[in-house]
Amino acid sequence: MTIQIFYIIKEALSNALRHAKANKIFVSITGNENLLTAEIKDNGIGMEEKSAFFRKKDFIPFKHGLRNMEIRSQIIGGSLKIRSEKNKGSNVILQVRSTKNIRGAENDRAN
C-alpha cells in the first residue's frame, strides 16, 4: 500500500514542477493507524477540472499521470480529490482508510 501512496505523491509533485510551473509547493502528510491524508498544493498555472479531460474522447497520451494517480488510489481503497483553477494552482488530497496499520510495510510485498 505504501508504494502506491508514494507514487501518487511523487506524481503530484512532478506535475507541480513540470506542468504547473509552480514556485511554491506545500506537502502535508498526516495520519494515524486508521487514516492517512496526504495533501499537495501548488501556486502554479492550474488546469481544467480533471472530470473534463477524463470525458474527452481524444484522450490519447494526455494526462496519463493524473489517470494513474486515480487508479492507484482506487487500488488501495483510497479517495483522490484534485481541485484546480486556472492561474490559482492545484490542490491534490489523497485519503486512505485502513483496517490494518498504515505504518506497516507488510502490504508492500504484494504491490
What is the total tally of β strands? 4
Helix content: 25-40%
Strand order of the largest sheet: 1-2-4-3
The largest sheet, given as strand count, sense and whether it forms a barrel, is: 4 strands, antiparallel
Order of SSEs: HEEHHEE
Computed structural class: alpha+beta
Please state the CA-atom Rg, rounded to the nearest Å. 14 Å
What value does the average pLDDT take? 82
How would the global form be characterised?
A: globular
Number of helices: 3
- Could you list the spans in which at least 5 consecutive residues all have pLDDT below 50? none
Task: Measure the end-to-end span.
Answer: 7 Å
Notable traits:
111 residues, alpha+beta, 4-stranded antiparallel sheet, 4 strands, 32% helix, globular
Description of the structure:
The protein has 111 residues and is of the alpha+beta class. It has 3 helices and 4 strands. A hairpin with a 3-residue loop joins β1 and β2 (35-42). α1 (2-18) packs antiparallel against α3. The longest helix is centred in the first third of the chain and has 17 residues, at 2-18. It is globular.
